[in-house]
Design a protein that fits this description.
There is one protein chain. This protein is mainly alpha-helical. It is about 60% helix and about 0% strand. It contains 35 helices and 2 strands. The protein has a two-stranded antiparallel ribbon. A hairpin with a 2-residue loop joins strand 1 (about 325) and strand 2 (about 330). The two termini are about 70 Å apart. The model is unreliable at about 10-20, about 520-540, about 575-605 and about 620-640 (pLDDT under 50).
Length: about 675
C-alpha cells in the first residue's frame, strides 16, 4: 500500500491497489539514483513528500551526487544526464525537503563542493549557473542562519561572487547573500564591511580591469540595491557607509569622467545617482542646516569632479565624433546619447539637495541654459523633457535668488525659449495641423509656473514684462492652451444615469422616477397613487386637480362648478376637446372647423398638463384592463339631453374608467 506522502495516496483508490512506481524502484536492495532521476514521477512524488523517496534523497552520498550533477558540466553535452539530470536535481532541492536542505547546510564539505562552482577559473556555463542559483536561493531563504555562518568563515566565496558578475543570476545571489535585509534570520552586515567585497565590486566597474559590459551593468545594479536597503530616516548600515565613503565615491567619479570606457562611465553614474537620491530623500527642513555643516562626501566629489565634466559634455564639445542618427521625423546630429542622458539624470537628483554648494555649481557651469537648449533641440526625447521639467520647476520653486533670477531667467532666457518653442510649433502646425512638438506641454507648464510666481514676486513680474511678446502670448496662446487643457474630453458630462458606481446609478435612477412621478402628480392629481380604494383615489384625484385649476383661475367656486359639469358630462375635463371621458351624447360641446371640440379654457398650466397626460395615455392600451377604446364612437343618439338615468350611468362609467386606468398604471 502507498505511503501517506505518496502522490497516489491522494487519488481515488479505495482498495489501495495502485502502487507508486517510484516505490518499486526504492524497494530494491540498492536503488539506482540515475533510474530515479530518469523517472517521470520523481519530482511529483518529492513535492508530495513521499517519505521513502525523501529519506533516500537526504542521504549524504545521494546529496553529493545531486550537487555534482548541478556543478559539473559533462563533456558530452548530448548525453541525457547532461540535459535532464542537472534540471531534476535542482528541482528536487527546490521542493524544500527539510532533510535535504539541512543535510547540505550542516555539512561544510557539501557546501564547499557546491560553492566550488562559483570559484572556477574562466567563464561558467550559463545553464548550470541557473541550476546553481536555484539551489543556493532555496538554501538562503530557508536556512540562512547556518549558511551565514559558513560565509563568515569563507569570505572567499563572497569575493568569488563579485568576480562572476557577468551573469545576472550571480548578481541576484550576491544581493541575497550580502545585503538583502528581507531575508529571515539576518543579524547584521558589519562582518561584510570587514571584507574586501566593496573594493572588489568597484574593480568590476572599472572598464580597464573588466571589459565585460554585462559585468559592469550587473555590478551597478547590485550596488544600487545596496542603497535601497536603508529606509528613509535611518542611518546607513556599515556596508552602505563604505559605498558612500570619500574613497569609494572618488573612484566612481573618476570612472564617470573617463572617456576610454563609456559603459564603465554610465555604470558609475547610475550608482552615484542612487547615492544622491538616497541622501536627498533623507533631507527634511529639520536637518537641512545639519547637512550644510557636514556635507556628505558624495556631494562634494560629484559637484567638484562630475559637474564640470558634465558641462563640457552637455555643451556638445565632447560629442563631435558621434554619428548622425536618422529617425522617422528627422536626423539627430549628433544624437543625445546615453552618457549625456545619465548625466542629466544625476543633475535632476542633485538639484533636490538644498545646499548653496549645489546652486553655485549650477550657476557657475551655466547648466540651466544647456538643459533648456537641449530640450528644444531634441524635441521628441520624452525622457529628456521630463528630466528638464523637474529641474526647471524645482528652480522656480526655490524662490528669488541668483539661480532663478539670473541663471534661469537671464542666462537661460526661459521666457524667450518658451516663445521660440511655440513659434516652432506654429510652423509645424502650418504644414500639418495634427503635428505637435513633443515639448509643447512642458512649455505650457513652464509658462503657467512663471505667471503664478509673478503674482507674488515683483522681481518675476518685472522680468516677464521686459520680454517682448510675452503678454500677448499669455493672453492668446497660453489662454487658449489652458482652456483646451481644462476642457473635459468628449465635451460636457451628459445628464444620464452613467455614474462611477452602481450605488450612484441606483440613486440617480430612483431620483429620476421620483421626478417623473412628482411632475405627473402635479399635473394629473396623483392618478398613479397605489390606493386600495379606486373610487376614493379617484375622488381625491379630482379634488386635487380642480383645486390646482382653481388656484390658476383664481376662483375656487368656479372650479367646483366646472367639476360638477364635468361629472354630468356637460364639458370636457381638460378643455382640450380630446378627453377620453367626454359624453358622446352630450350636445353642450362645440366643434371647430376641423371637427375637433373647442377648448373651454387653454390658458392655464393645468390644462396643458392634462393635454400632455392625454397624449401619454393615448400610447397605452387599456383594452386589456377592461377599459373602453381610446377613441369614442360616433354619436348616433338623439340630440336631446340625456335622461337622469343616463347621466348616472355615464358618471358610473367614468368612475370605472378611472379605476381601470389606475390599475393599468399600477401594474406597469
Amino acid at each position: 500500500m502507498d505511503d501517506p506522502g505518496s502522490f497516489w495516496a491522494h487519488t481515488e483508490d479505495p482498495g489501495g491497489e495502485i502502487q507508486s512506481s517510484i516505490e518499486k524502484l526504492l524497494s530494491a536492495d540498492s536503488p539506482d539514483l540515475e533510474e530515479i532521476l530518469n523517472h517521470d514521477e520523481t519530482i511529483q512524488e518529492c513535492k508530495f513528500f513521499n517519505e521513502p523517496l525523501t529519506d533516500f534523497l537526504s542521504g549524504r552520498d545521494i546529496l553529493e551526487k545531486l550537487i555534482r550533477y548541478i556543478i559539473d558540466v559533462p563533456k558530452d553535452a548530448l548525453e541525457r544526464k547532461a540535459e535532464r539530470f542537472p534540471y531534476v536535481a535542482s528541482e528536487l532541492f527546490a521542493c524544500e525537503v527539510t532533510g535535504m536542505l539541512q543535510g547540505v547546510v550542516r555539512d561544510e564539505g557539501l557546501l564547499t563542493l557546491l560553492f566550488s562552482f562559483i570559484k572556477k577559473e574562466g567563464p561558467i556555463d550559463p545553464r548550470h549557473s541557473g541550476y546553481f542559483r536555484k539551489v543556493v536561493g532555496v538554501l538562503v531563504q530557508r536556512n540562512f542562519n547556518d549558511l551565514e555562518e559558513y560565509f563568515r568563515n569563507h569570505t572567499d566565496v563572497l569575493l568569488a561572487f563579485a568576480k562572476k558578475m557577468e551573469l545576472f543570476c550571480v548578481m541576484e545571489l550576491l544581493i541575497m547573500v550580502a545585503w538583502d535585509v528581507t531575508i529571515d534570520g539576518r543579524r547584521e552586515l558589519q562582518w561584510i564591511a570587514q571584507t574586501p567585497l566593496m573594493d572588489t565590486l568597484l574593480e568590476q566597474l572599472d572598464g580597464s580591469k573588466n571589459s565585460s559590459t554585462s559585468a559592469q551593468e550587473n555590478t551597478a545594479s547590485a550596488l544600487i540595491a545596496l542603497t535601497e536597503t536603508c529606509s528613509v530616516g535611518t542611518d546607513p548600515n556599515e556596508i552602505l557607509q563604505q559605498l558612500e565613503s570619500k574613497n569609494s565615491t572618488k573612484k566612481m567619479c573618476d570612472l564617470a569622467i573617463q572617456k576610454a570606457h563609456p559603459s564603465s562611465a554610465i555604470a558609475s553614474l547610475r550608482v552615484l545617482k542612487a547615492i544622491i537620491s538616497r541622501i536627498a530623500a533623507n533631507i527634511s527642513p529639520n536637518n537641512s542646516q545639519e547637512l550644510s555643516n557636514d556635507v556628505p562626501s558624495a556631494i562634494i566629489n560629484v559637484t567638484s569632479l562630475v559637474i564640470p565634466y558634465a558641462a563640457k559634455v552637455l555643451s556638445n564639445t565632447e560629442s563631435k565624433e558621434a554619428k548622425p542618427l536618422p529617425l522617422q521625423y528627422g536626423t539627430l546630429t549628433p544624437p543625445l546619447g546615453m552618457l549625456r542622458l545619465h548625466l542629466i539624470k544625476l543633475l535632476a537628483e542633485l538639484i533636490r539637495i538644498p545646499l548653496d554648494l549645489v546652486k553655485d555649481v549650477f550657476i557657475k557651469n551655466s547648466l540651466l541654459k544647456m538643459l533648456v537648449d537641449l530640450m528644444l533641440q531634441y524635441s521628441f526625447n520624452n525622457i529628456l523633457h521630463n528630466l528638464v521639467r523637474d529641474i526647471v520647476t524645482s528652480v522656480i520653486a526655490f524662490g528669488e535668488g541668483p539661480l532663478r533670477d539670473k541663471s534661469l531667467m537671464q542666462e537661460a532666457k526661459l521666457p524667450e525659449a518658451i516663445l521660440k518653442g511655440f513659434k516652432e510649433q506654429e510652423k509645424k502646425s502650418a504644414k500639418n495641423k495634427a503635428d505637435r512638438m513633443g515639448y509643447t506641454a512642458h512649455l505650457i507648464t513652464f509658462a503657467n509656473a512663471l505667471e503664478e510666481t509673478a503674482v507674488e514676486s515683483k522681481t518675476m513680474r518685472a522680468a516677464l514684462d521686459k520680454v517682448s511678446g510675452w503678454q500677448a502670448f499669455v493672453e492668446s496662446h497660453l489662454a487658449n492652451e489652458n482652456k483646451r487643457q481644462d476642457t473635459t474630453l468628449g465635451g460636457r458630462r451628459p445628464h444620464t444615469h452613467l455614474q462611477d458606481s452602481d450605488d450612484e446609478d441606483l440613486e440617480q435612477t430612483m431620483g429620476s422616477f421620483d421626478y417623473m412621478h412628482n411632475n405627473n402628480t402635479a399635473s394629473t392629481g396623483d392618478v398613479y397613487d397605489n390606493n386600495d380604494d379606486p373610487f376614493a383615489s379617484t375622488a381625491n384625484d379630482f379634488n386635487t386637480e380642480w383645486e390646482a385649476q382653481a388656484q390658476a383661475n383664481g376662483s375656487l367656486a368656479s372650479a367646483e362648478k366646472e367639476f360638477e359639469e364635468v361629472a354630468e358630462g356637460k364639458i370636457n375635463s381638460t378643455g382640450d376637446g380630446e378627453d377620453y371621458y367626454d359624453d358622446p351624447f352630450a350636445t353642450t360641446t362645440t366643434t371647430t372647423t376641423t371637427g375637433k371640440p373647442k377648448a373651454a379654457n387653454n390658458a392655464t398650466s393645468t390644462e396643458d398638463d392634462f393635454a400632455d397626460f392625454d397624449a401619454e395615455f393615448d400610447s397605452i392600451s387599456l383594452s386589456g384592463a377592461g377599459t373602453k377604446s381610446a377613441t369614442p364612437p360616433a354619436s348616433t343618439a338623439s340630440p336631446t339631453a340625456p335622461t337622469v338615468e343616463k347621466k348616472e350611468e355615464q358618471k358610473k362609467e367614468k368612475e370605472d374608467d378611472f379605476a381601470d386606468f389606475e390599475a393599468a398604471f399600477g401594474d406597469s
